[in-house]
Design brief:
By secondary structure, the chain is α+β, with helices and mostly antiparallel strands. The protein has 27 helices and 31 strands. The protein has 4 domains: 291 residues, tricorn interacting facor f3 domain (Immunoglobulin-like); 133 residues, Neutral Protease Domain 2 (Neutral Protease, domain 2, Orthogonal Bundle); 89 residues, Sandwich (Immunoglobulin-like); 144 residues, Zincin-like fold. The chain has an 8-stranded mixed sheet with strand order 6-5-9-3-2-12-15-14, with no helix packed on it. The structure holds tryptophan and zinc ion (ZN).
């Protein structure tokens, strides 16, 4: 056996496999430390391929037997490495053969949570992207699609796999999935689970059994997810004409899971945080996230499963489109304006940050070492923005026509971005060559706006530049759909929304016959994922905030004023301008506006957002100063609007039974914003009362955060005493204590929490709670000038990497902004990145991430 050095995989090197798979039969004898997997695979020759060798992937497998057409293979008839098994073509039959293998695997030793592993006594799998190769030898690539039949032998009461139930007996079950699928969609679950069950009748009359499988005791937390599932199924029928295609749809909640959830055919597996919910234990944000993830995984049944990706470079084909679809669903369910603002906030916080640093990559990357490192905000969220732009460019009718063509033309295919764009070209007759640059060019385009007004003519000039990113020094202009309108100085609309297609580096536009200089309302609905460089005066922004017809631009105007205020506090030590506070108060007090929207207007930008704002303004960000400036601004807002906040807090109190819907959660968001602003002024009395009497987690957690921030000495212990039995609630406890600590105490608080008996590296949620509480929740603490935060994180990443490389690599992105900071901090961070990279036996996941961060 030889070890394979990590290799870079290139999109340009794609070749179809020599052999396709016609049928897969698997049999599992489950055992925690010695599971036997027997496979019987029918291979048929790919007539278009030149080679004949059979290449199979396999990792951490103990090979027991191998046979081709019933004849055992001897050791010199194949070549085996740590990661592969190759049978030379000349020892194989001409056109087809049956492969049989038996391997043994050890689920209990599998701490990477990829392949077959154990979580709290239950067997489960995670195969995307390349985990199936840890279960048996197989061509583990998404373009190899086959129907699967799976036999599970085990004494455990619940035995699940993909597809429909074929047979059920004592200590065994057989599942049959008729839809050809790639191996990454394979799933198996076995355990002592209970289901809450329901039914759904599809539009064409298929009766589908729905089950959500959970650990005993969690049955009471499934109702919301079940309802969200049924609403998702209906929505996909109504909006995209997509129906479900099996007799059963199973969801399983698993405590130890690397990401949110996984769309395995007919057997979605969920991180329990993405499915379990109750009013007492889950916040409004948790409910919204669960609804979005349930929808996302369900929608993958068509965008991902029925039509999958030819290779992993096409990941955005399924992820960008599916995120776009779940965003549409959430917008339809909870209100388009507020959802859009939330999506933009997340895009800017995660994707713009990624695009501005050493990890920047195109939505369709051209190479990777470890594909798990490319499940990124760029692939998912910028990928979704591309779909939104396409829809805006061609219009709704053409969009759904093109989607219909995509579903009919490519059903059963492993497709590419070219296939996706072609259905739009064929539907609309448009040439999308230039548009395609959104998939191939990394970096966030910056659109600079200048304007002038003379003799009734308004002229606006756009200049677009996309900055260099690693491996891409020069950029071409992109096709930017700029939705814009014009507003009169009195706030009325001078010109309604039009979509201007910016295609050149420089472009200008004229509007004639205007009585007064208009205020441009740009990038309405955030029509493209770009940075708008435009600095209208205070009055124009205040007018947009008060009057624009587009809710996104309205919110954005307020946000720009707030950012400007914070930056002035940082650079000129200026106090917040009372005119700004008045403008904010006017929006906050406007009862004709949705409370959720008003809460968003009152929310402050994150510390990370301000840090990037400093960089854009040519100032080196000082994390401690940013922390204090935002805190001071929060207090100024509280002082200025005490009367309004007092009124809102009292008036928005409600004893209606809890519902997680948009209307109620918007009111809670606004009321809890008032609470937060009043807490420094009322000696935390409201927060204390709310904490003690809250009947839902949204209100209790908001009060908890206020009390922690106010330095309440008892509240952490009280919360723990109340919730120590609930893992998901305790994740919040771990996270918030670090996030709300004084920056100088944040690292020591995090250290203390890692010594808590309930802290464990084996559970990604718990690990993320503490580490994310520091890196994302307490940036000033993470960036403590001593470097203690950097050392703490690096030490834990090295430890986690030995057990779970995927999650370690993900969390290492806390370092991706290291070049923003002063020389001392840069040195401290570089030292930690180098220390990680020098670690013996480092995973290729973390090695790739750290070296990209150091090089980029
Ligand atoms: N395909 C999944 C989704 O988007 C996410 C996913 C990819 C995943 N790799 C994973 C989930 C590994 C868990 C573990 O919904
Ligand atoms: Zn997905």
């Amino acid at each position: 056996m030889q070890a394979d050095a990590p290799q870079t995989v290139h999109l340009a090197d794609y070749t179809a496999p020599n052999w396709w798979v016609e049928k897969v039969e698997l049999a599992f004898d489950l055992h925690p430390t010695a599971t036997r997997v027997r496979s019987k695979i029918r291979f048929i020759r790919n007539p278009d391929a030149e080679g004949r060798d059979l290449h199979l992937d396999g990792e951490n497998l103990s090979l027991i037997t191998l046979a081709v057409d019933g004849k055992p293979l001897t050791g010199n008839e194949y070549r085996k490495t740590d990661t592969s098994l190759t049978v030379p073509g000349d020892t194989l039959p001409q056109d087809a053969f049956t492969w049989e293998a038996e391997v043994e695997i050890n689920p209990e030793a599998n701490t990477a949570l990829e392949g077959l592993y154990m979580s709290n006594g239950m067997f489960c799998t995670q195969c995307e992207a390349e985990g199936f190769r840890k279960i048996t030898y197989y061509p583990d690539r998404p373009d190899v699609m086959a129907p699967f039949e799976v036999r599970i032998n085990s004494d455990l009461p619940v035995l699940l796999s993909n597809g429909n139930h074929a047979e059920r007996g004592n200590g065994m079950a057989v599942w049959s999935d008729p839809w050809p699928k790639p191996a990454y969609l394979f799933a198996l679950v076995a355990g002592d689970l209970v289901a809450i069950s329901d039914r759904f009748t599809t539009r064409s009359g298929r009766d589908v059994a729905l089950n959500i499988w959970v650990r005993r005791g969690d049955e009471g937390k499934c109702a919301f997810a079940m309802d969200a599932l049924k609403r998702s199924m209906r929505w996909d029928e109504e909006v995209y004409g997509r129906e479900y295609d099996l007799d059963i749809f199973n969801i399983v909640a698993v405590d130890d899971f690397n990401m949110g959830a996984m769309e395995n055919k007919g057997l979605n597996i969920f991180n329990s945080s993405a499915v379990l919910a109750s009013p007492e234990t889950s916040t409004d944000d948790n409910f919204a996230r669960i609804e979005a993830i349930i929808a996302h995984e369900y929608f993958h049944n068509w965008t991902g499963n029925r039509i999958t990706c030819r290779d992993w470079f096409q990941l955005c084909l399924k992820e960008g489109l599916t995120v776009f679809r779940d965003q549409q669903f959430s917008g339809d369910t909870r209100g388009a304006a507020v959802e859009r603002i939330g999506n933009v906030l997340s895009l800017r916080a995660r994707q713009f940050r990624e695009d501005a640093g050493p990890l920047a990559h195109p939505v369709r990357p051209e190479s990777f070492v470890e594909i798990n490192n490319f499940y990124t905000a760029t692939v998912y969220e910028k990928g979704a923005e591309i779909i939104g732009m396409l829809k805006r460019l061609v219009g709704d009718d053409a969009y759904y026509k093109a989607c219909d063509l995509y579903f009919s033309r490519h059903d059963g295919d492993a497709a590419t971005i070219e296939d996706w764009l072609k259905v739009f070209e064929d539907t609309t007759g448009r040439d999308l060559t230039r548009f395609k640059r959104w998939y191939t060019q990394a970096g966030t385009p910056r659109v600079t706006v200048t304007d002038s007004f003379k003799d009734g003519t308004y002229r606006i000039d756009f200049e677009q530049v996309t900055p260099p990113t690693p491996g891409q020094p020069d950029k071409e202009p992109q096709l930017i759909p700029m939705a814009m309108g014009l507003i009169n100085p009195d706030g009325s609309e001078a010109r309604p929304t039009q979509v201007v297609e910016l295609t050149e580096a420089r472009q200008s536009l004229r509007f004639d016959g205007l009585d007064a200089r208009p205020i441009p309302s740009l990038l309405r609905g955030f029509s493209a994922p770009v940075i708008l460089d435009h600095s209208p005066g205070f009055n124009d922004r205040a007018t947009l905030l008060a009057h624009d017809t587009d809710p996104f631009v309205r919110w954005e105007a307020g946000r720009a004023l707030t950012r400007q205020t914070v930056l002035a506090m940082l650079t000129d030590r200026a106090a917040p301008d009372p005119a700004y506070l008045d403008a904010l108060q006017m929006a906050a007090a406007n009862d004709t506006l949705d409370p959720a929207f008003r809460a968003l207007v009152l929310s402050l930008p994150s510390q990370d957002d301000i840090a990037q704002g400093c960089v854009d303004a040519g100032v080196v960000p000082d994390p401690t100063a940013i922390h204090h400036a935002l805190k001071a601004l929060g207090r100024s807002i509280g002082d200025h609007m005490e009367g309004l906040f007092t009124t809102l807090y009292d008036r928005l109190a409600s004893d209606a039974p809890y519902r997680p819907d948009a209307a109620q959660s918007g009111k809670r968001a606004l009321r809890n914003m008032a609470l937060r602003r009043l807490t420094p002024r009322d000696g935390a009395t409201r927060a204390r009362a709310q904490f003690d009497t809250a009947t839902n987690m949204t209100d209790q957690l908001a009060a908890f955060a206020c009390l922690l921030e106010a330095g309440d000495p008892q509240v952490a212990a009280q919360f723990e005493a109340q919730w120590h039995g609930d893992r998901l609630v305790m994740d919040k406890w771990f996270m918030l204590q670090v996030a709300q600590a004084e920056p100088k105490d944040a690292v020591s608080r995090a250290k203390i929490l890692t010594e808590h008996p309930d802290f464990t590296m084996k559970n990604p949620n718990r690990f993320r709670a503490v580490m994310g509480g520091l890196t994302g929740g307490n940036p000033a603490g993470f960036h403590d000038p001593s470097g203690a935060g950097y050392r703490f994180l690096a030490t834990w990443l090295i430890r986690l990497d030995a057990a779970n490389p995927q999650t370690a690599a993900r969390l290492s992105t806390a370092f991706e902004t290291w070049k923003r900071y002063d020389a001392d901090r840069q040195t401290l961070m570089r030292t930690e990145l180098e220390r990680i990279l020098d670690t013996d036996g480092l995973s290729r996941d973390l090695a790739e991430m750290t070296s990209r961060m150091l090089e980029g």
